[in-house]
Amino acid sequence: LTPAYDAVTVRHLLTHTSGIKSDFKKRSTPPFFNESMINEDLYTALIETDLEFQPGEAMRYSNTGFSLLYMIIEAVSGEPYSDFLRTRIFEPLEMTNTVSRDKQNSDIAGLATGYVLPKKKFKPVGTVLRLGGGSLVSTIEDLVKWDAALKTEKLVSKATLEEAWTPFVLSNGKNANMGADPQGRYYQAGMGWFIGDENDRGLVHHSGGIDGFSSNIDRYLKEDLSVIVLCNIENITAVSLTASLAKAYFEQQ
């Protein structure tokens, strides 16, 4: 890679402050119709692509950062990413319906079909593969187990979570800001999480959008409340649904 990439750190990848272009996709073969680039394909694409800004100077969401983190996990652990997650997270937490989908485990029983809703008529969407940034398949029940584990130190330490939920400071001394969600709530970038402006409730959040699907988790740390929504309709914004559910809950308190 060009010397400009030498300044990129793992922390930059986790906080979307690396300056690396968001997406590098390629045509795939069935059952996937396109997928994120990985390994040599990704390196070749990066060689031909300049950084959008110098690492640490700004914040811009980058799925490529998650693809690179995927590759780092495999290189450091010496095992496939899906196996790493299964043995380190899914099995210890008894998340029996959660898997990192790849070409080796593409046939998953009971998998929902993703849809879009153009002109008020449901239309199924071909399956995509986003390694590192959209390959997880799960259920609400399993995500509840994962959420509960984050309230303990079973997965990561309290100190690590507090660091993840602290805004990244850019080179200009300002916090990395990712803008507002559909409800007008502003977020700053932590490590893999975004920190909301509802500081009195300690909101941390992450949404997910992929062809045919929408998902979101809002965790109100000071209220001990988590709201998780999984949708298999791309046009429905899971962020709006979680916000509405949380609002209804707080209005009843």
Low-confidence stretches: none
The secondary-structure element order is HEEHHHEEEEEHHEEEEEEH
Largest sheet: 6 strands, antiparallel
Q: Measured on Cα atoms, how large is the radius of gyration?
A: 18 Å
How much of the sequence lies in strands comes to 15-25%
Average pLDDT for all residues: 90
- The total beta strand count reads 13
Structural class: alpha+beta
The rounded distance between the terminal residues' Cα atoms is 54 Å
Q: Roughly how much helix do the residues carry, as a percent range? A: 25-40%
Q: DSSP helix count?
A: 7
Q: What's the arrangement of strands in the largest beta sheet?
A: 8-9-10-11-12-13
Shape: globular
Provide structural commentary.
- The chain is an alpha+beta fold.
- Helix content is 28%, strand content 20%.
- It has seven helices and 13 strands.
- Strands 8-9-10-11-12-13 form a six-stranded antiparallel beta sheet, sandwiched between helices. Strands 1-2-6 form a three-stranded mixed beta sheet, with no helix packed on it.
- Strand 1 (25-27) and strand 2 form a beta hairpin.
- The longest helix has 15 residues, at 63-77.
- The chain is globular.
- 28% of the residues are buried.
- The model has no long low-confidence stretch (mean pLDDT 90).
